[in-house]
Amino acid sequence: MVNNSAVSSNNSVNISAVTCPSNLEEIENNSTHQIEGEFDWNPEVRGFILGSSLVGYLVTQMPGGMMAEKISAKMTIILGVFIPALCHLISPFAAWSSIYFLIVVQFVAGMGQGLTPAASCVLAANWLPIDERGLLNTIIVAGFCAGALLGGVATGALCSSSVFGWPSVFYIFGGLGIIFSIYLQFFLFESPEKHPRITESELKHILSNQELNLSGKRPPIPWKKILTSVPFYALTIARTGQFWAATHFISVHPTFLGTILHYPIQQNGLFASVPFVLQTFLAVLVSWISGWLNKHEILKTFPIPTSASSVVHDS
Transmembrane stretches, by residue range (predicted)? Predict the structure, then answer.
Protein backbone atom coordinates (compact mmCIF):
# COMPACT_ATOMS: atom_id res chain seq x y z
CA MET A 1 0.00 0.00 0.00
CA VAL A 2 2.79 2.43 0.98
CA ASN A 3 5.89 2.74 -1.22
CA ASN A 4 8.66 2.50 1.37
CA SER A 5 11.44 2.96 -1.14
CA ALA A 6 9.89 6.18 -2.39
CA VAL A 7 9.52 7.43 1.15
CA SER A 8 13.12 6.56 1.91
CA SER A 9 14.42 8.31 -1.21
CA ASN A 10 12.53 11.48 -0.33
CA ASN A 11 13.82 11.49 3.23
CA SER A 12 16.96 13.44 4.04
CA VAL A 13 17.97 10.94 6.74
CA ASN A 14 20.78 8.56 5.80
CA ILE A 15 18.74 5.38 5.39
CA SER A 16 21.79 3.10 5.66
CA ALA A 17 22.34 4.33 9.19
CA VAL A 18 18.88 3.33 10.42
CA THR A 19 18.22 0.09 8.53
CA CYS A 20 19.46 -3.46 8.74
CA PRO A 21 22.28 -3.85 6.16
CA SER A 22 21.95 -7.62 5.73
CA ASN A 23 18.22 -7.51 5.12
CA LEU A 24 18.58 -4.44 2.91
CA GLU A 25 21.14 -6.23 0.73
CA GLU A 26 18.94 -9.30 0.51
CA ILE A 27 15.87 -7.28 -0.44
CA GLU A 28 17.81 -5.40 -3.14
CA ASN A 29 18.99 -8.70 -4.64
CA ASN A 30 15.38 -9.89 -4.79
CA SER A 31 13.78 -6.55 -5.66
CA THR A 32 12.17 -7.95 -8.80
CA HIS A 33 9.87 -10.08 -6.64
CA GLN A 34 8.63 -7.22 -4.49
CA ILE A 35 5.44 -5.30 -5.12
CA GLU A 36 5.90 -1.61 -4.37
CA GLY A 37 3.09 0.38 -2.80
CA GLU A 38 1.42 3.18 -4.71
CA PHE A 39 1.31 5.84 -1.95
CA ASP A 40 4.25 8.09 -1.18
CA TRP A 41 3.39 8.75 2.48
CA ASN A 42 6.07 9.89 4.91
CA PRO A 43 6.22 8.46 8.47
CA GLU A 44 4.35 11.44 9.91
CA VAL A 45 1.36 10.92 7.61
CA ARG A 46 1.35 7.18 8.32
CA GLY A 47 1.40 7.96 12.02
CA PHE A 48 -1.70 10.13 11.70
CA ILE A 49 -3.51 7.45 9.68
CA LEU A 50 -2.67 4.64 12.10
CA GLY A 51 -3.23 6.78 15.19
CA SER A 52 -6.62 8.12 14.10
CA SER A 53 -8.31 4.75 14.53
CA LEU A 54 -6.77 4.33 17.98
CA VAL A 55 -8.01 7.77 19.06
CA GLY A 56 -11.48 6.84 17.86
CA TYR A 57 -11.25 3.55 19.75
CA LEU A 58 -10.44 5.45 22.94
CA VAL A 59 -13.27 7.97 22.55
CA THR A 60 -16.14 5.44 22.56
CA GLN A 61 -15.03 3.15 25.41
CA MET A 62 -17.27 4.66 28.09
CA PRO A 63 -20.16 5.62 25.77
CA GLY A 64 -20.15 2.02 24.51
CA GLY A 65 -20.65 0.68 28.03
CA MET A 66 -23.39 3.19 28.81
CA MET A 67 -25.15 2.43 25.54
CA ALA A 68 -24.98 -1.31 26.22
CA GLU A 69 -26.50 -0.95 29.68
CA LYS A 70 -29.17 1.63 28.91
CA ILE A 71 -30.20 0.64 25.37
CA SER A 72 -28.96 -2.75 24.20
CA ALA A 73 -25.69 -4.66 24.44
CA LYS A 74 -26.65 -6.65 21.34
CA MET A 75 -27.24 -3.55 19.23
CA THR A 76 -24.03 -1.94 20.53
CA ILE A 77 -21.98 -4.97 19.49
CA ILE A 78 -23.65 -5.13 16.07
CA LEU A 79 -22.82 -1.46 15.50
CA GLY A 80 -19.28 -2.17 16.73
CA VAL A 81 -18.91 -4.74 13.96
CA PHE A 82 -20.89 -3.04 11.19
CA ILE A 83 -19.33 0.45 11.39
CA PRO A 84 -15.67 -0.68 11.08
CA ALA A 85 -16.67 -3.15 8.34
CA LEU A 86 -18.31 -0.37 6.35
CA CYS A 87 -15.26 1.84 6.88
CA HIS A 88 -13.05 -0.99 5.62
CA LEU A 89 -15.02 -1.10 2.37
CA ILE A 90 -14.66 2.67 1.98
CA SER A 91 -10.95 2.84 2.92
CA PRO A 92 -9.40 2.09 -0.51
CA PHE A 93 -11.51 4.82 -2.15
CA ALA A 94 -10.62 7.19 0.69
CA ALA A 95 -6.91 6.45 0.23
CA TRP A 96 -7.14 7.15 -3.49
CA SER A 97 -9.04 10.39 -3.00
CA SER A 98 -7.51 12.16 0.02
CA ILE A 99 -5.29 11.52 3.02
CA TYR A 100 -7.65 13.57 5.18
CA PHE A 101 -10.64 11.54 4.05
CA LEU A 102 -8.76 8.35 4.96
CA ILE A 103 -7.91 9.71 8.41
CA VAL A 104 -11.59 10.51 9.04
CA VAL A 105 -12.65 7.04 7.86
CA GLN A 106 -10.09 5.39 10.14
CA PHE A 107 -11.22 7.54 13.07
CA VAL A 108 -14.85 6.48 12.55
CA ALA A 109 -13.76 2.84 12.25
CA GLY A 110 -11.95 3.16 15.58
CA MET A 111 -15.05 4.67 17.17
CA GLY A 112 -17.03 1.65 16.02
CA GLN A 113 -14.46 -0.77 17.40
CA GLY A 114 -14.47 1.06 20.72
CA LEU A 115 -18.13 0.20 21.26
CA THR A 116 -17.44 -3.53 21.48
CA PRO A 117 -15.28 -4.18 24.61
CA ALA A 118 -17.62 -2.73 27.24
CA ALA A 119 -20.71 -4.10 25.48
CA SER A 120 -19.12 -7.55 25.46
CA CYS A 121 -18.66 -7.32 29.23
CA VAL A 122 -22.35 -6.43 29.68
CA LEU A 123 -23.42 -9.33 27.47
CA ALA A 124 -21.07 -11.70 29.28
CA ALA A 125 -22.54 -10.67 32.64
CA ASN A 126 -26.02 -11.49 31.29
CA TRP A 127 -25.07 -14.88 29.93
CA LEU A 128 -22.10 -16.46 31.70
CA PRO A 129 -22.50 -18.34 35.01
CA ILE A 130 -20.23 -16.88 37.66
CA ASP A 131 -18.22 -20.07 38.16
CA GLU A 132 -17.47 -20.30 34.41
CA ARG A 133 -17.06 -16.59 33.72
CA GLY A 134 -13.28 -16.40 34.18
CA LEU A 135 -12.38 -18.99 31.53
CA LEU A 136 -15.16 -18.07 29.09
CA ASN A 137 -14.33 -14.35 29.32
CA THR A 138 -10.71 -15.18 28.58
CA ILE A 139 -11.69 -17.17 25.51
CA ILE A 140 -13.75 -14.20 24.33
CA VAL A 141 -10.84 -11.78 24.84
CA ALA A 142 -8.44 -14.27 23.24
CA GLY A 143 -10.49 -13.85 20.08
CA PHE A 144 -8.78 -10.47 19.68
CA CYS A 145 -5.38 -12.17 19.67
CA ALA A 146 -6.53 -14.95 17.34
CA GLY A 147 -8.05 -12.38 14.98
CA ALA A 148 -4.84 -10.34 14.94
CA LEU A 149 -2.88 -13.53 14.23
CA LEU A 150 -5.06 -14.74 11.36
CA GLY A 151 -5.53 -11.21 10.03
CA GLY A 152 -1.80 -10.53 9.97
CA VAL A 153 -1.00 -13.73 8.09
CA ALA A 154 -3.86 -13.26 5.61
CA THR A 155 -3.05 -9.58 5.07
CA GLY A 156 0.58 -10.32 4.23
CA ALA A 157 -0.43 -12.99 1.75
CA LEU A 158 -3.08 -10.83 0.06
CA CYS A 159 -0.87 -7.73 -0.16
CA SER A 160 2.01 -9.69 -1.69
CA SER A 161 -0.27 -11.24 -4.29
CA SER A 162 -0.12 -9.76 -7.78
CA VAL A 163 -3.69 -10.95 -8.36
CA PHE A 164 -5.50 -9.51 -5.33
CA GLY A 165 -3.32 -6.64 -4.02
CA TRP A 166 -3.77 -4.47 -0.94
CA PRO A 167 -7.37 -3.27 -1.67
CA SER A 168 -8.59 -6.87 -1.38
CA VAL A 169 -7.67 -6.83 2.33
CA PHE A 170 -10.20 -4.09 2.99
CA TYR A 171 -12.85 -5.59 0.72
CA ILE A 172 -12.57 -9.11 2.15
CA PHE A 173 -12.46 -8.15 5.83
CA GLY A 174 -15.08 -5.45 5.31
CA GLY A 175 -17.38 -7.89 3.55
CA LEU A 176 -16.89 -10.50 6.26
CA GLY A 177 -17.71 -7.87 8.88
CA ILE A 178 -20.98 -6.98 7.13
CA ILE A 179 -21.94 -10.67 6.93
CA PHE A 180 -21.03 -11.22 10.57
CA SER A 181 -23.10 -8.22 11.72
CA ILE A 182 -26.12 -9.71 9.92
CA TYR A 183 -25.40 -13.07 11.55
CA LEU A 184 -25.33 -11.39 14.98
CA GLN A 185 -28.70 -9.77 14.34
CA PHE A 186 -30.34 -13.18 14.01
CA PHE A 187 -28.32 -15.34 16.39
CA LEU A 188 -27.18 -13.03 19.22
CA PHE A 189 -29.60 -12.43 22.10
CA GLU A 190 -29.52 -9.88 24.90
CA SER A 191 -30.06 -12.39 27.72
CA PRO A 192 -30.96 -16.06 28.28
CA GLU A 193 -34.59 -15.12 28.91
CA LYS A 194 -34.85 -13.64 25.40
CA HIS A 195 -33.40 -16.66 23.59
CA PRO A 196 -36.28 -18.47 21.83
CA ARG A 197 -34.57 -21.86 21.65
CA ILE A 198 -32.88 -22.16 25.05
CA THR A 199 -33.82 -25.24 27.04
CA GLU A 200 -35.33 -25.05 30.50
CA SER A 201 -32.31 -26.76 32.06
CA GLU A 202 -29.86 -24.35 30.38
CA LEU A 203 -31.87 -21.34 31.50
CA LYS A 204 -32.09 -22.63 35.05
CA HIS A 205 -28.35 -23.35 35.18
CA ILE A 206 -27.41 -19.83 33.99
CA LEU A 207 -29.88 -17.94 36.18
CA SER A 208 -29.12 -19.96 39.31
CA ASN A 209 -25.41 -19.17 38.94
CA GLN A 210 -25.78 -15.40 38.58
CA GLU A 211 -24.61 -13.35 41.56
CA LEU A 212 -27.48 -10.86 41.29
CA ASN A 213 -30.48 -9.85 39.21
CA LEU A 214 -28.95 -7.74 36.45
CA SER A 215 -32.32 -6.76 35.02
CA GLY A 216 -33.31 -4.70 38.09
CA LYS A 217 -32.52 -1.10 38.87
CA ARG A 218 -28.88 -0.61 39.75
CA PRO A 219 -27.52 1.65 42.47
CA PRO A 220 -25.86 4.94 41.45
CA ILE A 221 -22.20 4.80 40.43
CA PRO A 222 -19.97 5.81 43.39
CA TRP A 223 -17.80 8.21 41.40
CA LYS A 224 -16.16 9.76 44.48
CA LYS A 225 -14.98 6.39 45.79
CA ILE A 226 -13.78 5.37 42.33
CA LEU A 227 -11.80 8.56 41.73
CA THR A 228 -10.17 8.32 45.18
CA SER A 229 -9.34 4.62 44.91
CA VAL A 230 -5.66 3.68 44.69
CA PRO A 231 -6.40 0.25 43.11
CA PHE A 232 -8.44 2.05 40.43
CA TYR A 233 -5.44 4.15 39.38
CA ALA A 234 -3.11 1.15 39.60
CA LEU A 235 -5.37 -0.83 37.27
CA THR A 236 -5.70 2.19 34.95
CA ILE A 237 -1.91 2.46 34.65
CA ALA A 238 -1.62 -1.29 34.05
CA ARG A 239 -4.28 -1.20 31.33
CA THR A 240 -2.63 1.81 29.72
CA GLY A 241 0.60 -0.16 29.46
CA GLN A 242 -1.31 -3.13 28.07
CA PHE A 243 -3.02 -0.98 25.45
CA TRP A 244 0.30 0.67 24.56
CA ALA A 245 1.93 -2.72 23.96
CA ALA A 246 -1.05 -4.02 21.97
CA THR A 247 -1.13 -1.00 19.68
CA HIS A 248 2.62 -1.25 19.20
CA PHE A 249 2.38 -4.81 17.92
CA ILE A 250 -0.59 -3.96 15.71
CA SER A 251 0.65 -0.74 14.11
CA VAL A 252 4.29 0.13 14.88
CA HIS A 253 5.82 -3.35 14.81
CA PRO A 254 4.84 -4.18 11.20
CA THR A 255 6.13 -0.77 10.09
CA PHE A 256 9.46 -1.45 11.81
CA LEU A 257 9.75 -4.89 10.20
CA GLY A 258 9.04 -3.42 6.76
CA THR A 259 10.96 -0.13 6.75
CA ILE A 260 13.95 -0.89 9.03
CA LEU A 261 14.45 -4.65 8.74
CA HIS A 262 13.12 -4.73 5.16
CA TYR A 263 11.15 -7.94 5.46
CA PRO A 264 8.89 -8.65 2.47
CA ILE A 265 5.21 -8.00 3.10
CA GLN A 266 4.27 -11.69 3.38
CA GLN A 267 7.00 -12.42 5.95
CA ASN A 268 6.15 -9.16 7.68
CA GLY A 269 2.56 -10.27 8.22
CA LEU A 270 3.71 -13.64 9.55
CA PHE A 271 6.36 -12.29 11.95
CA ALA A 272 4.14 -9.47 13.19
CA SER A 273 1.53 -12.07 14.15
CA VAL A 274 3.87 -14.30 16.19
CA PRO A 275 3.45 -12.40 19.52
CA PHE A 276 -0.29 -13.03 19.41
CA VAL A 277 0.26 -16.80 19.33
CA LEU A 278 1.96 -16.69 22.73
CA GLN A 279 -0.56 -14.18 24.07
CA THR A 280 -3.51 -16.39 23.10
CA PHE A 281 -1.91 -19.48 24.64
CA LEU A 282 -0.95 -17.71 27.89
CA ALA A 283 -4.37 -16.06 28.23
CA VAL A 284 -6.17 -19.41 28.25
CA LEU A 285 -3.50 -21.11 30.40
CA VAL A 286 -3.39 -18.41 33.07
CA SER A 287 -7.19 -18.24 33.16
CA TRP A 288 -7.36 -21.99 33.79
CA ILE A 289 -4.76 -21.68 36.56
CA SER A 290 -6.65 -18.81 38.18
CA GLY A 291 -9.86 -20.84 38.05
CA TRP A 292 -8.12 -23.76 39.71
CA LEU A 293 -6.70 -21.51 42.44
CA ASN A 294 -10.14 -20.02 43.09
CA LYS A 295 -11.81 -23.42 43.16
CA HIS A 296 -9.37 -24.70 45.79
CA GLU A 297 -9.47 -21.36 47.66
CA ILE A 298 -5.69 -21.01 47.49
CA LEU A 299 -5.90 -17.31 46.62
CA LYS A 300 -8.69 -14.78 46.88
CA THR A 301 -10.58 -13.80 43.75
CA PHE A 302 -9.41 -10.18 43.49
CA PRO A 303 -5.64 -10.44 43.03
CA ILE A 304 -5.77 -13.33 40.58
CA PRO A 305 -7.11 -11.47 37.51
CA THR A 306 -4.68 -8.64 38.15
CA SER A 307 -1.74 -11.03 38.37
CA ALA A 308 -2.96 -12.96 35.36
CA SER A 309 -3.25 -9.77 33.34
CA SER A 310 0.31 -8.81 34.26
CA VAL A 311 1.71 -12.22 33.31
CA VAL A 312 -0.08 -12.44 29.96
CA HIS A 313 0.41 -8.90 28.72
CA ASP A 314 3.96 -8.43 30.04
CA SER A 315 4.89 -11.64 28.27
Answer: 71-93, 99-128, 135-157, 169-189, 243-265, 271-293
